[in-house]
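fyi for ur records
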Amino acid sequence: MVTSRTKNLQFLKLGGSLITDKRQPRTPRREIIARLAEEIAAFLAERPTPGLVLGHGAGSFGHFPAKRYGTRAGVHSPSEWRGFAEVWFDASALNRIVVEALHEAGVPAITFAPSGGATTRDGRVTTWNIRPLCAALEKGLLPVVYGDVVFDEKRGGTILSTENVFAYLARQLHPQRILLAGLDEGVWADYPVCEELLPRITPNNFLKTQQVLEGSAATDVTGGMLAKVEEMLTLVEEIEELKAFIFSGAAAQNIGRALRGEHLGTLIGL
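which gave:
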């Protein structure tokens, strides 16, 4: 499915910890979201064929109800299905905030919600027609995806993290770079002290660092830093020339610098 718009494709995720206060339910960081939208707009204005798919986490909009109802593990009872709908509502509410900021910055963003198109089996995507998303890329629009609930053949329902969504799309579209922007400067070798940054993680050194790759200190039902690193390592082994970066989007212009090819934070690659 590689096209003229996807040959130099990048995926960028705005992490839930970056765009929300994960300690407080339904608390967006609106000023940060607006700044990030402006940085993305500036990058897109420079390139006639930018080749970008944007994703964002759910942060404090999705993780609290997801943890309360155990949505990731499966959805079966009436109460759990009500929780499923609550998680959907919260995640989509944050998506609207993000997309509104992008439009205010002049970015023609359009959302492709996993809940409206993807189905899974035991947490793995089995069907998802991404032709509309590819058409958006072809027309110069910015496709936006996010962590969302989905219907699952085995679990009834579950949650796909943004990294899970990126993993499926990456196997179809073969991006060159996946950029995961959060609050941390990268992956810490000494978490939670956070004084020594790992410059690079490869399949060869992963086992040495696995024990310090603990989940987020805030509520996160999709696995935290360890899950992110494992997902990216799997992808870089499968997809030729793919590199992934985990870095901080908190500092002004870091998003633009990363999109323009600068190596920030921790590189995950061969």
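The radius of gyration is 17 Å. thats all i got for now
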